[in-house]
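Bug report

Summary: structure tokens for Glucose/galactose MFS transporter differ between web form and batch submission.
Environment: batch mode, default settings.
Steps: 1) Submit the sequence below via batch. 2) Compare with the web form result.

Sequence submitted:
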Amino acid sequence: MAGNFSGGAATNQSNGAHINNQFALISLTSLFFIWGLITSLNDILIPHLKGVFELSYTQAMLVQFCFFSAYFLISIPAGKLIQKSGYQKGIVIGLVTAALGCLIFIPSAKLTAYWMFLGALFILASGITILQVAANPLVTLMGKPETASARLNMTQAFNSLGATAGPIVGGMLIFGGSHGAEASVDKVILPYFTLALILVVLGLYFKRIHIPDTHTTEASEDVVETTESAWKYKHLVLGAIGIFTYVGAEVSIGSFLVNYISDENIGAMTQGEAANYVAYFWGGALIGRFIGALIMNYIKANKILAFNSVMAILLLITTITTSGKIAMWSVILVGLFNSIMFPTIFSLAIKNLGKATSQGSGILCLAIVGGAIIPLLQGVLADSIGVQLSFILPLVCYVYISFYGVAGFKPQKMAQ
């Protein structure tokens, strides 16, 4: 991406730009790690709060509804914020906002107020949304366009590393070896206060380092002048639906894992023990992203997406129709095939958008609201037909993703 670094630049300046890009990419991986950890902590928070407040599955899934609805409400304003202030300031604002959300967990626990937890989660997720809107396109722009999917997959691998660590750390600190219903609501204070401190430190760090801003000079001027709309691109619109269904399916599965695995007909274990198996679900995504980043050098991204979605479908059919360890490991293994889906759908959807890339990125981040809607709908299903049968909903989501990998990804504009 020539952008700010071409046009009469000397060789040493080009080398300097390359080094700056590499350093920025390394720094950005810390953001992918931290928001992966925060997001997967919800999978531990849900059964904990469900037990403490004696919630139904539908009520418990309001945790994900409030968290992921922030993507729907904040993505567009976040895109405008970043277009105006640049990636670096946007990242700092996102980190500070997320830290504030973590701190509100303290009065929420002291007052034993579920509604306040939900508000804290919304604020926390608003900060994460700003980070997502800034970091995802920034990674795709920092390098050759043809390697954008592999590059985003590699950074997303650190997102999966954080997501893998989240259930382990959260399980130890929140459950502490006890059942969710017996645990004190105060046990959320230490992990979320620690997260707040980490986010503030990261905010100070990103305020001081140099990030090559490929968005705000001549690129931003072009965006202001053009009348091009990203909504005209069919593959983007279909990709947005793909992001909606993928995030919804992944979040929904993760949200039910502790309760599902601890069921006497599935894993027959305590919730504290089941929390460790949630780490396998996210750990599978971690392994898969490293593998995917390598395989994509030889196989087209859309073909890998189609294959992975079909495997997820088969695994969910297995977990719905069996019991015991087979059902348990089948749903856990879905994580392995989830691995490359988000970055692959994202990269395919913004391909060939040109000056509409920034708007397209905002639309895709908007579609992450699937993480709010699908788990809530599965919660309604779980309350009516049981947790095991409710997995038919994420199964349908993967059917759509397989369609996108086979046909929907092809770049084309809508008919005028």
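Above is the batch result. After comparison, the two runs are identical; trailing whitespace caused the diff. Residues 1-19, 177-181, 215-226 have pLDDT under 50 and may be disordered. Residues 3-408 form a domain with the Growth Hormone; Chain: A; fold (CATH 1.20.1250.20).
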